[in-house]
Amino acid sequence: MATRKVSIQHISAPSVFRVAVYFGLAAEIAIIIATTVVYMVMDAIGIWTKLNDIIGGAGGEEFISLGLAVSVAAALGGVFVLMSIVLAPLAAVLYNQMASPLGTIDVTLSN
């Protein structure tokens, strides 16, 4: 089996930015879908009805709804996406600056 040693000397910050955007948006969609599924399962069990009765008191007002749960998940996911979009290219720039004085990452590839 042939092996080859490759040294990663430079990482393109725009490429890292694009990958971070795509992964961040995919994670956002996954978070929203997971939140919706978990909410529906907990609603089928009856947890939200009991919790809304406790929170709402005698008025019977619905406090926790699917819209609220998805909105909170979307907001938190948006924060995650923004942080990953900002920090990933910054990490690439830092790696590029530190690769020459400290050395690069060596990867061994095999067939």
TrEMBL record:
What keywords appear on the UniProt entry? Membrane, Transmembrane, Transmembrane helix
Q: Which residues does the UniProt record annotate as the domain DUF3566? A: 5-111
Instruction: Report what the protein is called.
Output: DUF3566 domain-containing protein
Where is the chain membrane-spanning? 21-48, 68-95
